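User: For my dataset I need records formatted as: sequence, then structure tokens, nothing else. Please produce one.
Assistant:
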Amino acid sequence: MPIVFEEVDATVQPANGGTPQAQAAQPGAGTDTPEERADALRHALALMAERALRLKAD
């Protein structure tokens, strides 16, 4: 049985219309406290570590 691949042409854009990098670079755009930013960083690092372990296990 042949394998059929469908071609998908689309662009992905954030729902708010802007890019996260552009929003983060704007002065005054970040209203997070240092503790909130540290928690977000810890969470992101934990997710990255979990993904690395899963890739290693696979």
